[in-house]
Amino acid sequence: MTLAVTGATGHLGGLVIDHLLDRGTPAAEVVALVRDPAKASDLAARGVDVRGFDYDRPDPSALTGVDSMLLVSGTAVGQRLPQHTAVVDAAVEAGVGRLVYTSAPRADASINPVAPDHKATEEYLGASGLPHVILRNGWYHENFLADLDAAAHTGQVLTAAGDGRVASASRSDLAEAAAVVLAGEETGRTYTLTGDVAWSFEDLAGDFSAVLEREVTAVQVAPEEKSAALAGAGLDSGLIGFLVAVDDAIAAGELADRTGELAALIGHPTAPIAETLRSRA
Ligand SMILES: NC(=O)c1ccc[n+]([C@@H]2O[C@H](COP(=O)([O-])OP(=O)(O)OC[C@H]3O[C@@H](n4cnc5c(N)ncnc54)[C@H](OP(=O)(O)O)[C@@H]3O)[C@@H](O)[C@H]2O)c1
């Protein structure tokens, strides 16, 4: 079985390869598909087959011999859908047997700003005829490290998400699940992968307090106040709009689902967010 992972020089893709190797897939059966092979010398040194692969012009010949591939969703806002559809087309042309795609929670019916690209990619994949599995990855614990850094200075965590909760998970747990699914044979399934715990922002402030060894409080603000605070911290307007829209989705309960599917796939409880926060401190 030859297993390919896109975005292998990124955080998630790199961890997927680590988990594949740790779980016993021989390095010679792992293909790292990377935008810039010069960044992948460590993967090559571990015996992984590194191949150039750009979502903007995906070459089907880079997928020769691949039985199963993981498409890690891209980062280019506004370009993701054409990139993803081009990758799916390349996989079909190359005769890849199966594709696993990293999507987002409730991608088909969500106010989360990331949802439309994921919904459209899921639909394109469904219409492609390519056997596939969708991994609707929950929010990363790591997304809250910037709030931890800010809280170290302000003693506050600002949220416009009201009483919304977040069942986030570590990138490593989500990557392990992707490795399990990629190395398996299942098709035609959509997983919603969440942490075991849905925490509130008061809970998060408590974790911040413990890690920072200073009192941190959660402060509920209106979206406009959060925007103003983020602008004051120097964030650009696109990112501010994104972060406030995510708070809206959290307030609506969209990131609070706890499905248990992640723990079941990886065979152990999901790591709590406090563990990720401690690793940063
Ligand atoms: N669930 C969540 O909370 C959450 C949070 C953030 C992002 N995401 C999504 O999950 C994905 C993986 O997250 P991550 O933390 O691993 O992000 P990341 O570290 O930024 O990795 C993204 C990877 O995509 C690759 N990539 C981007 N554009 C490409 C292109 N045109 N052609 C080929 N490769 C390209 C990057 O290549 P280079 O290494 O060359 O840059 C990188 O390896 C993200 O891309 C995003 O879609 C989810």
From TrEMBL:
InterPro entries reported in the protein's UniProt record: NAD(P)-bd_dom, NAD(P)-bd_dom_sf, NmrA-type_oxidoreductase
Residue stretches making up the NAD(P)-binding domain: 7-182
Entry-linked PANTHER family: NMRA-LIKE DOMAIN-CONTAINING PROTEIN, QUINONE OXIDOREDUCTASE 2
SUPFAM superfamilies with a match to the protein in the record: NAD(P)-binding Rossmann-fold domains
Stated name of the protein: NAD(P)H-binding protein
Upper taxonomic lineage: Bacteria, Bacillati, Actinomycetota, Actinomycetes, Propionibacteriales
